[in-house]
């Protein structure tokens, strides 16, 4: 029976469904640390209501997609002509590829598999920008822009936060990225997990995207609302782009469950906001507990999951299979993600009682009766590789010049189209609280060094030193330090660093203060003055407390977005700077 269950992982790029696992094992589903959804929403009362209405939901046709989209736009105060709802974000990715990606698409890897697989399935060239393990998988937007220019990519994608590592870029950085690539056919900002971020108060670029000619923002509902099975998501763009996607979607592409949930949300805003607060608190506690396991590295995350590197010698497929068969715990082993390897797991944030069970299972599998004795490599072989050679081959086979092309990129002078905000300054993708501290996934020799950004030479257009042969081959530049060679344990991040902060979580503001809409929040007076002067508002540094909701969070309409019913006036100021 155990072999039958684990065999489900040997085919396909994604984990098997919970239904498939239950059928094969003949038991109830395992404790799920694999599927990244909100464990606190819907509430038990909402599930009771859905159960009570189940007969009508599955018996009758739903309303048209326009009706359901209209209700969602009313809730979020978005212009309906700027929104298209899909049967999950994957349906929207499919139509974006078919309609708007003509020849090539650039994407940092590792990332969500459909962003690499979908364009390749339709014959497009996918230019994969490898995120470096030695840099904690942090995305340097300036280097990414240089890569896009060198490859001639016509479409660029950023997932913010990124899946599977949870990497995050501030709103100002995303807008500067869009400014620098305004000539591309399309830029997609995938914000599927942004509701779980707390690094800044207003991280979404939804409000900015509707003003731009070539930007689409993708949002998920299943992940936020804990209802992956309902299959609903939406995109926001200017009316022309949104309309092209919307015109291709079937009239009844959204089912009755999606309609029922969307129309329930207005009465459950307070519970939803509290669920997000609880996930963020759990992320902090879960990172703290995992970072105490010897040899386990925890990377900073702004998603509802944590990316971890297993101790040296541990094979991810073995750890995954033993956790499932011996402890009934399901985790996401990332060996089949391009740009990752089998030494990495993605672990979904769950309540503390579940995390204690996960930690206990990991201790048993990784260390056995003697802590520190890591699991050896699998002797039986599997379809995944725990090394980097397979990753290099995958990137090379799908990326044209592949990693060889990165050497030329590294030697090329800075492109004149780089955002002015980035010229000669430290890159803003780092959390302010974490700058100068130990960085995730770095060897001890590199701890405390500044993260890669634009050097003064790059800002002046000077050529960078030629990379080493190891860099040209896509390998890590830094090798093991003497401490690692002696077998000393490499400590993971502290919980505070995982959250990108050094202070305790602030308590919610007092009840009665104005609420902020997580999708579309009003601008501050200072930001409005900056906008009038043609400046991009500066993102607030560090995590910000979310307001205490007493009803569904209602956002004041942004400039030119009149209560979500009218397209922005042509004379509206350029929010993007």
Automatic annotation (TrEMBL):
The keyword Transferase applies. SUPFAM superfamilies: PLP-dependent transferases. Residues 415-577 are annotated as: Disordered. Residues 75-360 form the Aminotransferase class I/classII large domain. GO terms for molecular function: pyridoxal phosphate binding; transaminase activity. Keywords: Aminotransferase, Pyridoxal phosphate, Transferase. Residues 415-428, 455-474, 547-560 have a biased composition (Low complexity). InterPro entries: Aminotransferase_I/II_large, PyrdxlP-dep_Trfase, PyrdxlP-dep_Trfase_major, PyrdxlP-dep_Trfase_small. Pfam families: Aminotran_1_2. Its cofactor is pyridoxal 5'-phosphate. This is Aminotransferase class I/II-fold pyridoxal phosphate-dependent enzyme. It comes from Streptomyces montanus.
